[in-house]
Amino acid sequence: MKVSFSAIGRIRSPFHHTEGMPIQPSGAKDVEGTVEVDAMYAAGLADIEHFSHVTLIYIFHRSEGFDLKIKPFMDDSVHGVFATRAPRRPNPIGISTVALLKRNKNLLLIKGVDVLDGTPLLDIKPYVPEFDVFQVSSVGWLDKKQQQAKTWKSDRRFGSE
Amino acid sequence: MKVSFSAIGRIRSPFHHTEGMPIQPSGAKDVEGTVEVDAMYAAGLADIEHFSHVTLIYIFHRSEGFDLKIKPFMDDSVHGVFATRAPRRPNPIGISTVALLKRNKNLLLIKGVDVLDGTPLLDIKPYVPEFDVFQVSSVGWLDKKQQQAKTWKSDRRFGSE
After folding, report:
1. DSSP B135-150
2. Looking at the partner chain, which of A43, A125, A136 has a beta carbon nearest the beta carbon of B68?
3. Residues A64-103: pLDDT tens digits?
4. Which residues of A touch B55 (CB under 8 A)?
5. Please, what sign has the CA dihedral across residues B54, B57, B58, B60?
């Protein structure tokens, strides 16, 4: 089954190259950016400003192709791509939860942005602990590596940059 | 910008009709289902069984069209669609985090499934608290309604069913 989506806007960030970019929002928690929602969708943002966090769904637009087994940024072992958050995936879709600081019409000022400037946005959902927070019992190869994600930066492994 | 994605598999659940279906994983926490990943992508699942939770990204395939302002299941007021998790959205993409009980080759046995049987799957990501858990300060119109999501069931408002 094939499906076609159109971007509803763009994410603006200070990151113009994949290299040196934080690899997760936790590594970019003070980095501010802007979500520019196309004017035709602006009415869909009504009341979103009452949520402190939103989840952005977007396209890893600089990602090219994929491998089913990869060595992720934070590990020296090979894992299945679905056991990683790497951008080079069969469907290069990214999700990032960010703090929503303010809405000004079709613009959302956000904090904790870990994506490239110009990233095409597919959807915005309110982040709700009841739906989004789970008590995990294991995090696979990321065990003991979660803290590293805060300081780890992207390299050239996953992009054309 | 347009982008085209292909399903990597299907989600199997006991829900064959939108009516009466839980509207969030929190309302379906004991409901088991199966993720059937197409054989060609099975290698990408290596090591995913070491994560207790995964986030599924999928298509709301029964959803038709969208309105920018809607009255969500759990409220009597109108809100912008991006301030809701309603399935009828400009890009009908859903995200649900589920417990991963077991992997058997290309099949994942999951628990907490809140989607329709046959839902086309776009991506699977490991759920990692460091990346996915945030301390919110407000949840907009969902304040005081989060608990309701556990028992609320879907109605005919959003589907063709």
Report:
1. --S-BGGGTTTTGGGG
2. A43
3. 999 999 998 778 899 999 999 999 999 999 999 999 999 9
4. 95
5. positive
What pLDDT is attached to residue A160? 39
Q: Is B105 on the interface with A (CB under 8 A)?
A: no
Q: Tens digits of per-residue pLDDT, B70-107?
A: 998 778 899 999 999 999 999 999 999 999 999 999 99
Structural tokens at position B126: 């490991």
**Which residues of chain B make contact with A3, given a CB cutoff of 8 A?**
4-7, 59, 120
- pLDDT computed for residue B26 by the predictor: 65
Euclidean distance between CA atoms A45 and B151, whole angstroms: 27
Q: Which of B4, B130, B141 sits opposite A47 (nearest CB)?
A: B141
Other C-beta atoms lying within 10 Å of the C-beta of residue A74: 16
Residues in B touching A141 (Cβ below 8 Å): 47, 50
The angle at the Cα of B50, spanning B44 to B56, to the nearest 5 degrees, equals 55
Cβ A90–B8 below 8 Å, yes or no? Answer: yes
User: What CATH number does domain A9-153 carry, 2.60.40.10, 3.40.47.40, 2.40.30.70, 1.20.1270.20?
Assistant: 2.40.30.70
| pLDDT reported for residue A161 | 34
Q: Is B127 part of the contact surface with chain A (CB cutoff 8 Å)? A: yes
With the C-alpha atoms ordered B106, B161, B5, B22, is the resulting torsion angle positive or negative? negative
Using the Cβ of B59 and the Cβ atoms of chain A, whether some distance falls under 8 Å is answered with yes
Report the share of chain B in percent with pLDDT over 70.
87
B37 touches B58 (CB < 8 A): no
Return the CATH class of domain B9-151: mainly beta
Interface check for A102 against chain B (CB to CB < 8 A): the answer is no
